[in-house]
């Protein structure tokens, strides 16, 4: 059976409402052994990514989730254990489950602490993150809070100045409230390109822009297959992205008690796809700061950015896609939809 989005041509597509796609994905997760709570959380996350046009972490990931669950690499029934360790610090042992249910379990305590102390940290360990990171931070900004999150992944990025991969693609996501507008959100891999986008390019037979990765001999290549088959990715921005990636390893793994990207061994679980690492979230209540209204200040910054000619803010593309999906539904080609239905047992 082919994977969702594992197609080159865009055959006839069908539009699904967000609710219908979420329900279909929930059924897939349930059928492959997750608890009802986990299925709901992951389905919402994955459908949100597809709706917002974040294709590298939308339904494209479903076969990876399924093979991971089937291999026994991740516990789809895990019940996260939340530990209230200090006035501004919450720890969660995800129990070898997915990171998003662990975040959901700790969320209300985290917000309560951020509102009372002004800042709170959530350290998730023993967890698997296979998704886009912006869904983890954006809801905090919707509640007037500032949020920053990092997660590490699997070894596939050569640190700047090194000759072999060590870091993961290690994304950083940030969200801040804004008066009279969508929150300011960015979410970026610290590699020159996300691993998911390399896989998608390889399937489509497309070449990558220069500077994304190297082949198995360490030579620059624009061939995504050469990167995937023994090659590696490069950090974005040379030593700067490399330093940020190192920071993500420290915050998401060393600080949480999770695995570094290079530390886990999934060789006993053929089919396992999800990195078994850690995630850190920092939430700040801006009402505790210097007295000026933070959301108004954000809006002023955006106004000035537009004033100097900026047309696109990070997040604008997603919000445009979201608005379009609300009217038209989420377009899935026939082959993708058929494979999702098959995975759901329909
Ligand atoms: N779970 C994991 O371990 C990992 C997950 N990922 C995920 O992969 C996804 C893709 O990452 P990546 O490829 O780096 O993301 P992109 O390079 O596509 O985008 C990075 C950010 O920059 C914004 N942006 C892009 N182009 C412009 C532009 N021209 N002007 C202004 N803003 C712009 C995007 O906004 P917009 O979204 O609106 O385009 C986004 O916020 C992320 O969601 C990330 O979390 C990556 C690595 C590992
Ligand atoms: O696209 C990426 O890079 C990753 N996404 C999900 C987790 C592994 C890395």
How would you briefly describe this protein structure?
Helix content is 39%, strand content 19%.
What does this structure look like?
This protein is an alpha+beta fold. It has 11 helices and 12 strands. The chain has helices at residues 18-31, 36-51, 62-71, 99-117, 134-142, 195-204, 224-228, 239-254, 294-307, 316-328, 334-343; strands at residues 13-16, 81-86, 89-98, 119-128, 146-151, 172-176, 184-188, 213-214, 220-221, 232-233, 276-284, 330-333. The strands form 3 sheets. A 7-stranded mixed beta sheet has the order 2-3-4-11-5-6-7, with helices on both faces. A 3-stranded antiparallel beta sheet has the order 9-8-10. Strands 1-12 form a two-stranded antiparallel ribbon. It is globular and about 55 Å long. Residues 1-9 have low confidence and may be disordered. The site of NADPH dihydro-nicotinamide-adenine-dinucleotide phosphate (NDP) has 28 residues, from β7 and α10. This is Ldh family oxidoreductase. Pfam families: Ldh_2.
